[in-house]
Design a protein that fits this description.
alpha/beta; four-stranded parallel beta sheet; three-stranded parallel beta sheet; 49% helix; 7% strand
């Protein structure tokens, strides 16, 4: 008996079968694409989720037969290119994901297309350079005064050149380069959690672009008695995954997991403050390398920072002394936070702050990592994120936080483009852990 629509079972991801010949077979890929797209055409529940589905449905509605059979396969490319791999169609919306017999998984299907294109040399030089996160980050950080001046939206000539060279929209806000994090904070031996250890994966974003997130995370954990070891040995590979460069992701996954497993002892968790990186450790790497024992151990011992704080609060307890943040908080749950399937842990963590109301917005920001800054996608990224921006503005709180810093900056830019007076409240987005550090009155540089 088939599994009916709307079953109670949780979504189950099938592995990425990139080591099998069928995965790369263009005929079988086209057959699978048409099979899944035909189910989407018959359902259309995702019509307003992102730009991929409207483009697919428009292709069908404007075809000769108004069905998928009269749409040419080469016309699918705009649909594929519009996917940001946010996973929201799989995790939230689609009633036909595995274990349903239809086994619909559009993000993994789009990844398969991109993997084929990458293997066939169809990913351009410009796009590959954007994904060189560690090289770009190290260079930008060493020359951060010059680099930040160059990428500033105020520097119109430089941004025009940047657009021509790398196809990054001259109107897209890019993250600044920050000073490296300087570890200097004593462990609080009076904290209920004293004696516990943790590994803090500082991520490429925290290492190169916003060390204050790492600083706040380190200070909050140390203040709560946690002996924190910093670790960063390279990007998690999300930018490469977005391009379909599976072999690069595999290399990063194997190298990083091997080193981290050597640091993971019984009871020690790897804490990740950026949700995209946590998702890679927890889900994407195990799907690509399901037989790798190191990756399995890492996946089982990785926690989002918000998830870790809540677990600490519920078990050992956290330090008292959190002070109210007058003006309340609105927190944006990014797609990759939601895709971890752990619930609204950021809002739950922020509600530990007394006498402070916390509002939640769960809607895509439209940014999609490197996807949203490209010239071809920027206007769409703005359009998709407007709903999130407007929902956040309705709450009119003093503090705005996003679990994804890139999403937070993008939402602020949307508010600036709208040019409304009440949007000025959104000009200083925070990571939720920064607000916890602020509530504890731990010194931060922001």
């Amino acid at each position: 008996m088939g599994i009916g629509e709307g079953g109670l079972r949780a979504p189950e991801r099938n592995i990425v079968a990139w080591t099998e010949d069928d995965y790369w077979d263009p005929v079988k890929l086209d057959e699978e694409t048409r099979r899944q797209f035909d189910v989407c055409h018959g359902c259309r529940r995702c019509f307003n989720l992102c730009d991929s589905f409207p483009k697919l449905f428009d292709l069908i509605d404007e075809s000769k037969t108004f069905e998928l059979d009269s749409v040419k396969s080469e016309d699918f490319k705009p649909v594929i290119d519009s996917c940001t791999l946010c996973d929201m169609c799989f995790m939230v919306t689609c009633p036909y994901v595995p274990p349903h017999e239809f086994a619909i998984d559009i993000p993994m299907l789009m990844l398969r297309h991109r993997a084929k294109d990458f293997k066939n040399g169809k990913i351009g030089f410009k796009e590959k350079q954007i994904a060189e996160i560690d090289r770009n980050g190290k260079l930008g950080q060493k020359t951060r005064i010059i680099s930040n001046a160059f990428i500033s939206l105020k520097n119109k000539p430089a941004r025009y050149i940047f657009e021509k060279i790398l196809n990054i929209d001259k109107k897209a806000k890019l993250p600044n380069f920050s000073k490296p994090f300087n570890k200097s904070f004593l462990i609080n031996k009076e904290a209920p959690g004293y004696g516990k250890k943790a590994i803090l994966f500082s991520t490429c974003y925290g290492s190169y672009h916003n060390s204050e997130i790492i600083s706040s995370t380190y200070k909050v954990l140390s203040h709560n008695g946690i002996d924190v070891s910093l670790f960063y040995d390279g990007c998690c590979g999300m930018p490469q995954l977005e391009q379909g460069n599976i072999e690069s992701v595999v290399q990063k996954a194997r190298a990083t997991s091997e080193k981290l497993v050597n640091l993971i002892n019984e009871g020690i968790k790897v804490i990740v403050p950026i949700p995209s990186c946590a998702l890679m450790f927890k889900t994407e790497w195990p799907l690509i390398l399901p037989q790798d024992k190191n990756i399995k151990i890492l996946s089982e011992n990785t926690m989002d920072i918000d998830e870790y704080i809540i677990t600490l609060a519920e078990n050992e307890g956290i330090m008292k002394g959190l002070k109210p943040l007058e003006g309340d908080i609105t927190v944006h749950m990014s797609c990759h936070s939601r895709a971890q399937n752990i619930g609204s842990k950021s809002a739950q963590m922020l509600r530990l702050i007394p006498e402070t109301k916390v509002n939640i917005v769960e809607r895509c920001s439209g940014h999609g990592g490197s996807w949203g800054v490209k010239k071809d996608n920027f206007n769409t990224a703005i359009k998709v994120g407007k709903i999130s921006a407007k929902n956040i503005m309705k709450y009119n709180t003093k503090y705005f936080a996003s679990t994804c810093p890139l999403a937070g900056d993008h939402i602020v830019q949307i508010s600036e483009i709208e040019e409304k007076e009440d949007l000025k409240l959104l000009n200083t987005p925070s990571h939720p852990i920064e607000l916890i550090a602020m509530s504890y009155n731990l010194k931060i540089n922001k």
